[in-house]
Amino acid sequence: MIHKEKKNAVFASIVENQDKRTPTQRPSNPRNRSEQNTNSNGAGRKNARTRQRGQSFRSSQMKHRHPIKPKKEVSHNIPPIGDNLRIIPLGGVEEIGKNMTVIEYKDDIIIVDAGLQFKEADTPGIDFIIPNVKYLMERKEKIRGLFITHGHLDHIGAIPYIIDQIGNPPIYTRQFGALMIQKRQEEYPHLPALQMKVIDGNEKILIGKHFKVETFPISHTIPDSMGLIIETPMGKIAFIEDVRVDNMAGVPTEEEVRQYEKFKKEDILLLTMDSTSIEKPGFSISETLVTENIEKIIKDVPGRLIIGTFASQVERIISIIEAADKYGKKIVVDGRSMKSNLEIIKQLELLRTKNVIPINEINNHKPDKIVMIATGAQGEEYAALMRIANKTHKEISLNRTDTVLLSSSVIPGNEYAITKLKDNLYRSEAKVITYRDSDIHASGHGNRGELEWIHKQINYRFFMPVHGHHFMLRQHAELSQVSKNTPPENVVIPDNGSIIEIYDEGKKIKILEAKAPSGVMMVDGFSIGDIQEVVIRDRKMLAEEGMFVIIASVNTRTGKLKKSPDIISRGFVYLRESQDLLQQTRLIIKKTVEETTAGMNPINFDFVKNNVAENVSRFLFQKTAKHPIVIPVILGV
Ligand SMILES: [Zn+2]
Ligand SMILES: [Zn+2]
């Protein structure tokens, strides 16, 4: 029978060590403790959730397995701003996603965008990543406003997680973005109300003592996208985030030409611009052509048409709904983000038709009168299209008269998921049309030719590419040097957290050596922070190497093992076929425990656990070349 108090003391230190690497005497987390079990056999399963590893074992193991960049945040060595103009991209320049840029002059700060990035392969289990806002938290009182260029999540998605931390400044946004922001915010009712300032596509706003912001409409894929001209005492900064150039066979439309006409009489100090599609040559196909092609398919299909596209393609969705109406067809919308965007479309009366019906009325109409718009064209696991494809959708099962149209390109990283989706769709015998078969998708981000055209409309001194991976920014910088003869010293290529200063009355630009904190901030379930490297590292190790739990009962008086230790492992080796390995491991555990405890009174359990973890880990590596997470649980009885 386990001595109750002793057992709890052991558990306390197990739980403790999960977040702190040194064993201290803080009280344990009651939630974790409630997961413990009282009988020593059953304890195995539940204890697997807690862990204990010796510090020495952990650090030596980590060194060669998963090197971690030291993330020392050095915000204290940032020099005072003086009379310079500061521009700091906090996100969006080492990735596609989490766009956020700070502009600072004397006592005033304004921010452009506050986006999120979806998780990457190297952050397992993480919901998404947001910009690091420590620099802003330390300068809250200077923040005059947050400007939102448009309502996509990579520009607004971080708002619920950061707005409170940066002092809830006013948010300047056009109407569509405002509704997108409000809708998201409803999911976080504990947060204070946002200070929304809905502005227009052509407006001038005085803000703080030093800034005047002028907005102008630009083309993208969502209504109310805008660029900014930020007037500072040093000169004007033109902010052109996500942008494309509407064109017909490479010739910009009249409206595009008109949108950039204002720059003819402007001298721009610094231009910053989207680099997402810099690798693609020429002009992208026009959205008008895309819409025409989709309309033709809508007209000609013999049965139901199911269109998979991005919910963020708001303008295309509107066109599809209207085209369907033209041919007397009803629209069904499926997928959470798609429905939510449709609500905003309706709320803003952007739709002239009334042909959208609820999904449960789908069978009241002939199949050739139904067009469905669904999320999941990237093969997202639980999105509508995937459920249709793998036959788990409640209302739709595909048959040979259906047509599925994938109106989206393949986002790098999603290739595998899309392959699975396509396999499943083709198995259904429905006809499948992808963007490779027909011009049914155009990106919202201008190709190289479009970006070059915009560069040529604007007279600027300095250039800073944004919105893209580092290589994209490099290519965009090159474009500026080649097409605009921008001298290399006038082009800056930032990293997240780079502090760029314009000085000498606007004649010079430099990147400071000191950086704003830029460690990754992750949203993981309910917690947000930059201290979860340990958790991510564990998830990676669990995924790659599995885990190995040892439960051993030690006689506190003699230091001998009470019985042969229990071993539980997941994702490591198949235990039933590894009896030899288990037997030898048990011997090592027994030997380690009994040698370590010999003459020890009272027994230092942490010390024993460290030794067991170290020895077992070394042994398992020798035998299997795998490094499972070894979790010893030593019970005093
Ligand atoms: Zn966008
Ligand atoms: Zn974007």
Describe the fold and architecture:
The protein is α/β, with parallel strands linked by helices and 637 residues long. The chain folds into three domains: 4-50 and 546-636, Roll (Ubiquitin-like (UB roll)); 80-282 and 444-517, 4-Layer Sandwich (Metallo-beta-lactamase, Chain A), CATH 3.60.15; 287-434, Rossmann fold (3-Layer(aba) Sandwich), CATH 3.40.50.10710. It is 32% helix and 22% strand. The chain is built from 19 helices and 28 strands. An eight-stranded mixed β-sheet has the order 8-7-6-3-2-1-22-23. Strands 9-10-11-12-15-21 form a six-stranded mixed β-sheet. Strands 17-18-16-19-20 form a five-stranded parallel β-sheet, sandwiched between helices. Helix 8 links the parallel strand 7 (171-173) and strand 8 (196-198). Helix 8 (175-185) crosses helix 12 (336-347), helix 10 (287-300) runs parallel beside helix 11 and helix 15 (448-457) crosses helix 16. The radius of gyration is 29 Å and the shape is globular. The model is unreliable at 1-74 (pLDDT under 50). Bound molecules: zinc ion (2 copies).
